[in-house]
Fold this sequence. Notes:
The protein is of the alpha+beta class. It has two domains: 1-29; 34-77. It is 62% helix and 13% strand. It contains two helices and two strands. The chain has helices spanning 2-24, 52-76; strands spanning 39-43, 46-50. Strands 1-2 form a two-stranded antiparallel sheet. β1 (39-43) and β2 form a beta hairpin. The radius of gyration is 17 Å and the shape is elongated. The protein starts with a helix and ends with a helix.
Amino acid sequence: MENIGKLIVSLGVVLVIVGLVIWLFADKLSWLGNLPGDIKIERPGFTFYFPVATMILISIALSGVMCLIGMITRLAR
């Protein structure tokens, strides 16, 4: 149970750091939702937005971060 507590606290700290980065650099990250490949359909009274390219970019970045965390934890053992 001790490891689960440490994991939850670590995830909380990571979420706070990510939130602060997004909050502080929001004006510099305005391109993130407007990439080529993001689907946006606007009609009178209706807007559909599906950020395909943005989701792929975030997925690649998170996969890289998780891979690095995995390597670091394996080396720490």
